[in-house]
Amino acid sequence: MSIARWLLSGVLLALAAQVGADDSPRYFKGGAGTDMAAFVTENCVACHAVKPVGDGPRHSAATRAESGPPLYYVGDKYREEWLREWLQAPERIRPAGYYPSANVRASPEGDAIDETSLVSHPILDAELAEEVAGYLMTLTPYADRLAQEEYEPASVPLRMARLDFRRFKGCVACHQDVKGEGGVSGPELYSAWSRLQPQFIVSFVRSPGQWNPDTMMPVLEMNDAAIHRLANYLKTIAEE
Predict the structure, then answer these.
(1) What is the model's pTM?
(2) pLDDT digit string (tens) for 135-151?
């Protein structure tokens, strides 16, 4: 291990324990010669699963407040351009964190997000973000699963598609399709089309548990056409 990589690894490991403790920006620069596989394994495990662990939930309730999404199938899930840009300017995708129950508190006005308990992601400089994103996009253990999806993206009438999303499917109970409108227990979906691969959206909606045993996403009994309509809605709102 090079001295530069050792120092950077130590800094990020320390960050994993401290991030979210205050509002100070966390910014890290890349360095030549870094082994990305080792870097991700060593520095991301505090908040992310970097490999599958059995078939059941991977995290105990005690650690869920500091957890993030699994990384071992990033290449099957995200768009590389979005991932590279997000690592340089991370914004919270899940308003109440990855495990909302750990970050939501009862108040006289109803449930409220405890912002002090939320964990912020470190900011990477352009060089490191490109290297990390490039490596993560090679992690495609479920490429065959995506290849089975026969989905051709299309636009849909916005008014009816929004009615389907909000009232008929009830997705708005957990997700926001417009910023500030909808639930906070799931990831916001108004930017989903720009960050997620289309086939992943369809496959995940069809069978969320096969992608992530920890997910709170229910299995919706829908045929292909209904699933495709939801995916097309995400495409349509992204293009507004």
Answers:
(1) 0.83
(2) 999 999 999 999 999 99
How distant, in Å, are the alpha carbons of 40, 65, 113, 236 from that of 189? 27, 22, 18, 12
CATH number at residue 198: 1.10.760.10
Residue 161 Ramachandran class (φ > 0 left, ψ -120 to 50 alpha, else beta): alpha
* 119 shares a domain with 26: yes
- The structure tokens listed for 65 are 């407040």
Pairing state between β 110-113 and 104-107: antiparallel
- Looking at the structure, tell me whether residues 17 and 114 fall in a common domain: yes
Domain containing 29: what range?
3-136
CA nearest to 101, candidates 86, 88, 117: 117
DSSP secondary structure code for residue 100 in this structure: G
14-29 pLDDT per residue, tens: 444 344 434 445 665 6
